[in-house]
Design goal:
Structural class: alpha/beta
Strand content: 25-35%
Helix content: 10-25%
Largest sheet: 7 strands, mixed
Shape: globular
Order of helices and strands: EEEHEHHEEEEEEEEEEHEHEHEE
Radius of gyration: 17 Å
Strand order of the largest sheet: 8-5-4-3-2-1-18
Number of strands: 18
Length: about 270
């Protein structure tokens, strides 16, 4: 399995662009996948530099309905006319961040919801023997404080987002069980716990953001790290984990965790 980081907040060199967002390319024995697309055309520019051909992608999974993960959806659909794109049925709901008392829209272009390549999901969905979409994470243990300013709309009123529109992707290839988690708004400990239960064994690798970049409690971050030690899982984190809290995670998890900027190529 090959994973290439196409969009992330940082880059390994000035050769690649970076932006607040996420897009991962994954190549397995059976699939060429994009997990998230980032906010804009950057995924196309970095894909070309990393030898990824967008017209060969057969599967796209967008983790949740925020623009930094799915803002480039329209651009992808212009470039690729056959891949299925999986989003939770609530991903096209209205989503906001609250800053200085103002609600700022961070949702996706809902005009794309009826596009013929879009598949709206609900609950776990097994695509084939390699790919399973995992959602409906109900636990809220060690819940990211960084979620506090994120909202959606229910019955015409803005309410705090419960992230029922969030989904992760489990890729099973041989002995490797790789979990891709976009922002882990539901809490990486909770998502991993559900994936392990659904799988019946420990995930071997986790790749994605942990959404603790604004969390100001070092003890919360350290406790997350201690809980992640439970299995012999390898972690590759990025995006909304934040560099400062990544250092705290690294102090606890040591070689078990690695930060992966744009341009990183992993072979699993």
């Amino acid at each position: 399995m090959i994973i290439k980081v196409l969009v992330e907040n940082t880059a390994i060199s000035t050769e690649y662009g970076s932006v607040h967002g996420l897009c991962l390319y994954v190549e397995t024995a059976e699939h060429k996948i994009l997990f998230d697309l980032g906010p804009d055309k950057l995924f196309l520019e970095n894909a070309e530099k990393l030898g990824v051909k967008i017209d060969e992608i057969d599967t796209v999974v967008i983790s949740h309905g925020h623009v930094d993960h799915g803002g480039a959806l329209g651009l992808f659909l212009q470039q690729n006319h056959h891949a299925k794109v999986y989003l939770h049925k609530k991903a096209f709901d209205r989503h906001f961040t609250k800053m200085l008392g103002l609600y700022i829209g961070i949702g996706l272009d809902d005009s794309l919801a009826t596009h013929e390549q879009i598949v709206l999901t609900e609950g776990n969905l097994k695509l084939d023997e390699e790919l399973t979409i995992i959602t409906d994470v109900r636990e809220r243990e060690l819940y990211p404080q960084s979620n506090r300013n994120l909202y959606t709309v229910e019955n015409g009123k803005k309410i705090r987002d419960d992230f029922s529109h969030e989904q992760s992707l489990l890729i099973c290839e041989g002995k490797h069980k790789v979990l891709l988690a976009g922002c882990a708004h539901c809490g990486i400990v909770n998502i991993l716990s559900k994936a392990n239960r659904d799988l019946g064994e420990c995930v071997t690798h986790v790749i994605g953001g942990f959404h603790i970049w604004k969390d100001k409690s070092p003890e919360l971050v350290r406790e997350i790290a201690r809980r992640l030690k439970g299995c012999d899982t390898r972690y590759y984190t990025c995006h909304c984990t934040g560099q400062k809290n990544y250092v705290l995670l690294r102090e606890e998890l040591k070689e078990q965790i690695q930060y992966v900027p744009v341009g990183t190529v992993l072979e699993i």
